[in-house]
Amino acid sequence: MGFKFKQFTIEHDKCAMKVGTDSIMLGSWVQTNNAQRILDIGTGSGLLGIMLAQKTQDTCLIDGIDIDAEAILQAEGNAKNCPWSDRLTFQHTSIQLFSVETGYDLIVSNPPYFPVNLSANKIHSIPNRLNARQTVELDHSTLLQEVAKSLSASGTFCCVLPADVVKEFLLSAESVGLFCTRELQVQTKQQANVSRFLLEFSPIKDTKNSEKMSIYNHLGSYSKEYIVLCKDYYLNF
């Protein structure tokens, strides 16, 4: 059963990571700034690329890459069935092997979150899910190095990460000349700790804009802020 959005549907049964709140928030939050070339690293079902196609100009071309061949086939199918299929291209490759001729205006990623967990992997050892969730094939330092090489001089990079890895990620980013210019701190509810960060980086150092948002209100319903953020995509908003 696919996940239905206002203007498209995402099938994700062949993907290790299913459609989730993190990617929906990230795709909604990203500012495309008239981007003409966009790269989605670890595209999975193609969700982020298709979300960005919805809010970019007809001249904007979007590439998605993933090391999971099944995911790429599913992304291609999802693209074929969306209104912007002619602007979306997916390729089965890693960012390390991906050839970038001219810098991208925008790069996005919902990257692997967690360090390699050897003990857990002995019990749960499905390779494509491990690669999607853990930094097995793509650690954060390598991701940032590749992003820095693939970004145009005025481009931006956006990603979503769990709160406990953000400090180290920011330091790694600065070491390759990427500076955080925007962040959205996300709580599940107002009383909870911040669990996710949406981050935007630029090669140009600037004052960071920081905001905070709760997904749910005190009644357990979606908050006004979350509805405003995602209203262009969620079917029921």
Any chance you could write out the topology, listing elements then pairs?
Layout: E1 3-4, E2 9-10, H1 21-29, E3 37-41, H2 47-54, E4 61-66, H3 69-80, E5 88-92, E6 104-109, H4 118-123, H5 127-133, H6 140-150, E7 151-162, H7 166-175, E8 179-187, E9 194-202, E10 209-214, H8 224-230
Parallel strand pairs: 3-4, 3-6, 4-5, 6-7, 8-10
Antiparallel strand pairs: 1-2, 7-9, 8-9
Question: Can you give the helix content as a percent range?
Answer: 25-40%
Distinct helical segment count: 8
Strand order of the largest sheet: 5-4-3-6-7-9-8-10
CATH domain class of the domain at 3-19 and 33-180: Alpha Beta
**What fraction of the residues are assigned to beta strands by DSSP?**
25-35%
Structure description:
By secondary structure, the protein is α/β, with parallel strands linked by helices. The chain has a domain at 3-19 and 33-180: Rossmann fold. Helix content is 30%, strand content 26%. The protein is built from eight helices and ten strands. A hairpin with a 4-residue loop joins strand 1 (3-4) and strand 2 (9-10). The longest helix has 12 residues, at 69-80. The radius of gyration is 17 Å and the shape is globular.
